[in-house]
Specification:
Blueprint (H helix, E strand, L loop, with lengths): L55 E9 L3 E8 L4 E8 L4 H16 L8 E6 L5 E6 L4 E2 H6 L4 H5 L2 H16 L2 E2 L8 E3 L5 E3 L6 E2 L35 H4 L6 H17 L9 H8 L7 H4 L5 H10 L11 H12 L11 H11 L1 H5 L3 H45 L2 H8 L6 H15 L5 H20 L3 H21 L4 H15 L4 H21 L4 H18 L4 H20 L6 H20 L4 H21 L4 H20 L3 H21 L4 H20 L3 H21 L4 H20 L3 H21 L4 H20 L3 H16 L4 H13 L2
Antiparallel strand pairs: 1-2, 2-3, 3-5, 4-5, 6-8, 7-10, 8-9
Helix pairs in contact: 4-6, 4-10, 6-9, 9-10, 13-15, 13-16, 15-16, 16-17, 16-18, 17-18, 18-19, 18-20, 19-20, 20-21, 20-22, 21-22, 22-23, 22-24, 23-24, 24-25, 25-26, 26-27, 27-28, 28-29, 28-30, 29-30, 30-31, 31-32
Length: 833
């Protein structure tokens, strides 16, 4: 967007930003400018309105992030300086989030929350909003400028102002989710303003979407990581780092973390990357603030510890309670978070009653002191016991939650940035903890320990650490074998043992894997025979037979079809005893039909039979997601099944039938991306299904529609490549998508645009070839782009440029293994003479 920049280097001081407004009479009569609609007859605008860019003169850029930038601008209508925020990323999801940010921030009318003056869209379509230009420095700069603990303690009123602002926001059912010193502006005259509400959430909005962390990588731990992000690792609570839903207590934790930073002169967690901070955050609390700041008042230390409690239930419930405790500390009252000893209470009472105490006899004081000493010892002993008990419970809970988290969100984020090694310490700690618990507790306790070993084994297997995976699965199997020996009729114990054995079998290959699965399938069938309607037994048998059918595949068609038939038979019984809430079991039913469909398609070449099985699986998924609307694992499966049906129909050139299947899958993929914008796999699924829709449109000669779809896919891939620049396969896909855009532009006679697209694709592909000169696939991609570029230049009658590109294509073709390429390029060169 190009605005007319201000010509003067000096901008006049801003006037009072609050404008007096007048309304008509209570009866709704017209104002001087004529009649206006009443509130009842004029609903809020659902979309931002177009604003003339000449209203604002841009002065200079004052901030920039991964998704937007902020200008200092002059509001020429009212003669005042403003901060003007714009979106940089061409993404519908980012634009929606930006508009939501503007609307939420505008609702929050508080002196310590940045005020929004105007929001709209430029004539070119990009949204923006103008807000009060806040003068001052960020809280982290203010902390860095201090030279003593006393100087840092003087910042306490600023944190109290933040707590009061968030108390107001919480009263409006809005949480910030990215509170950090960088988002707090401290003015010259004591003003404190909370800014950047881009990740705010309206707790009362049922359509508001929860997100989790994305883009963990090279960004610093004190910064909001690039991508569609939820929070800053150094200041976020464990539940937010784990991608769970959060409420007001997440902001309470962040305020406590900022108070920690003020007292300790450093953040609670410090490391080189966000991923490392999160790995530490999920394992252990930060170093106690009292270690960094021995001079910190015990009441403030207690406030920090309560605000930053790892269990949300142990924190202040709202920022209002936290603000009240901070205010009590400032005014010398008792702080609710601190447990005062008898001695502390006595000393406080003595300070407040000096005159009366002076009249008390020395003997009485001595007697009181002796009593205080005795009480102190009692309280100390009780406090020690309570602390040890709380630490034991907290450590046990943390370790047991860790094994689930380590193979979930954290593992996926670390895989994205190639830092899966960061899980080594996490896994080792959890494994050591559970090793210590083996053999203790009831049978149910031992079942939980076995389940934890199973989860840990899965985490090691995902990281290709098969030795440790076998060790953990082996421990789980040993414990469960003992439990089954004691209680042979316990379906829970028996089915879990089979699950662990199945995980061990997954580490095998070839005949060993097949033999192990046959044994597990036989055992599962015996368990079903003994408990014919037990969901756990049916689930295990259904899954094992499906796995075995897929493993045998084309090697033994008759056996694989028999196994899949048994799996579908079990799935039918299983579905009859399930509710839609049994998501994992329903997923197993879908898998049975999916495997059956794959075999009918690939082994028997029965396309109609395959489609019938896929549609049964889709119907199961639709029933589940009609109630469990956020059942992501089922939604993902349904999207994939629509893709399979569409692909079969496309293979038979049934374009009219394939298109709605791909579009149905695409709609689900878009829904999944909204549920978790950080999940790159789902975003890539959205791109792939969108590309298939484009292919169908292109085959139906709807080049305009195909161009629009390919452009959307290109935008998605550009975002993914930006988030993971080291993924060369994604970069290749990006170039291919840009090439498709160029092809559609050429098909609609937009030759200049097509040439530009081909040049962009070729630039990406040349970078890939330079990175790996031996990769024949990348050479072939570059050849194809150069050939298309040359042809487009011929169409555009730019023959000299065409010859340059075609000679480049010819050089690539001559080094390849396909002689037809050389012939085609020579023909094009002949046309370019």
């Amino acid at each position: 967007m190009n605005h007319r920049a201000g010509t003067d280097d000096t901008i006049a001081a801003p006037s009072d930003d609050t404008l007096a407004t007048t309304t008509g009479s209570e009866s709704g009569t017209s104002s001087r400018r004529g009649s206006r609609p009443s509130i009842a007859s004029s609903p809020d605008y659902l979309e931002l309105r177009v604003v003339d860019p000449d209203h604002y003169a841009l002065v200079r850029e004052i901030a920039r992030g991964g998704m937007g930038r902020i200008w200092m601008a002059r509001d020429r209508r009212l003669g005042r300086d403003v901060a003007l925020k714009e979106v940089l990323v061409d993404s519908e999801a980012i634009v929606r989030r930006f508009e939501r940010e503007a609307r939420i921030t505008a609702r929050l009318q508080h002196p310590s929350i940045v005020g929004v003056h105007e929001a709209g869209v430029w004539p070119s379509g990009e949204p923006f909003y103008a807000m009060r230009l806040v003068s001052g420095r960020s809280l982290d700069d203010a902390i860095a400028a201090t030279t003593s603990f006393a100087d840092r303690l003087a910042l306490l009123p600023n944190l109290l102002a933040v707590a009061d602002a968030m108390a107001y926001a919480h009263g409006q059912r809005v949480i910030h989710r990215d509170l950090k010193p960088r988002n707090i502006v401290v003015g010259e005259f004591g003003e404190t303003v909370v800014i950047d509400w881009g990740l705010a959430k309206d707790l009362g909005d049922s359509l508001d979407l929860e997100t989790s962390i994305a883009g963990i990588g090279t960004s610093g731990p004190g910064e909001t990581t690039a991508g569609d992000i939820l929070g800053t690792p150094s200041y976020m609570p464990p539940e937010q780092a784990a991608g769970e839903g959060v409420d007001e207590r997440a902001d309470v934790y962040a305020i406590g973390a900022m108070l920690y930073h003020v007292l300790a002169n450093e953040p609670p967690y410090r490391s080189q990357s966000s991923a490392e901070v999160i790995a530490t955050l999920m394992v252990e609390p930060p170093v106690p603030v009292s270690k960094h700041a021995p001079a910190a008042p015990t009441e403030l230390v207690a406030i920090v510890e309560r605000a930053m409690a790892r269990d949300p239930a142990a924190r202040y419930r709202t920022a209002r309670e936290l603000a009240d405790d901070l205010r009590r500390f400032q005014t010398g009252q008792l702080v609710g978070a601190h447990r005062y000893s008898a001695g502390q209470l006595l000393r406080r009472w003595m300070r407040r009653h000096r005159t009366a105490i002076a009249a008390v006899a020395a003997a009485a004081i001595v007697g009181i002191a002796v009593g205080v000493v005795a009480l102190r010892r009692i309280f100390a002993a009780e406090a020690l016991i309570e602390q040890q008990r709380a630490e034991a419970v907290a450590n046990r809970k943390a370790a047991e939650e860790l094994s689930q988290f380590m193979i979930g969100d954290l593992k996926n984020k670390l895989v994205d940035v190639g830092r899966i090694d960061l899980l080594d310490a996490v896994a080792a700690r959890a494994a050591a903890y559970y090793d210590g618990r083996s053999g203790e507790g009831s049978d149910d306790d031992q079942y939980d320990v076995a389940a934890a070993h199973n989860v840990l084994g899965g985490g090691f297997a995902d990281r290709l650490d098969f030795a440790n995976a076998r060790h953990q699965f082996g421990k789980a199997a040993s414990i469960l074998t003992g439990l089954v020996a004691r209680e042979p009729d316990n379906v829970r114990f028996g089915s879990q043992l089979l699950r662990v054995r199945s995980n061990l079998a997954s580490l095998e290959t070839g005949p060993a894997a097949e033999q192990a699965l046959h044994a597990i399938a036989d055992a599962a069938d015996r368990l079903v025979a003994a408990h014919p309607l037990a969901p756990r037994a049916l689930h295990m048998a259904c899954s094992t037979h499906a796995h075995l059918a897929a493993l045998i595949g084309k090697r033994d068609p008759a056996a694989s079809l028999a196994e899949s038939a048994r799996s579908v038979e079990l799935a039918t019984t299983l579905e009859a005893v399930l509710t839609v809430d049994d998501i994992l079991e329903q997923r197993a039913v879908m898998t049975a039909h999916r495997v059956r469909g794959d075999l009918l398609r690939d082994v028997q070449h029965d396309a109609d039979g395959a489609i019938a099985e896929y549609r049964i699986a889709i119907a199961v998924g639709d029933r589940v997601t009609a109630k469990a609307t956020h059942a992501a694992v089922v939604l993902d499966a349904v999207a994939s099944l629509h893709d399979e049906v569409g692909s079969v129909l496309l293979g038979r050139n049934e374009l009219a039938g394939a298109q709605p299947e791909f579009e149905a899958g695409l709609a689900i993929a878009e829904r999944l991306h909204q549920l978790d914008p950080s999940n790159h796999a789902w975003y890539q699924t959205e791109q792939q299904l969108g590309e298939r829709v484009g292919m169908v449109l292109e085959a139906r000669h709807d080049f305009v529609g195909a161009l629009a779809r390919y452009r959307t896919c290109e935008s998605i891939l550009t975002e993914l490549v930006t988030a993971t620049p080291s993924d060369h396969d994604l970069a290749r896909d990006q170039a291919v998508e840009i090439r498709k855009v160029g092809r559609m532009q050429a098909s609609t006679n937009q030759l200049a645009d097509a040439v530009a697209s081909y040049r962009r694709a070729a630039a990406i592909e040349r970078t890939l070839v330079e990175a790996d000169p031996a990769n024949d696939d990348w050479h072939g991609q570059l050849y194809a782009t150069d050939e298309l570029l040359g042809s487009a230049l011929i169409q555009a009658h730019d023959l000299p440029a065409a010859r340059v590109e075609l000679h480049a294509a010819l050089e690539l073709a001559e080094h390849g293994t396909d002689p037809s390429r050389v012939a085609r390029v020579r023909q094009d060169l002949a046309r370019a003479k």
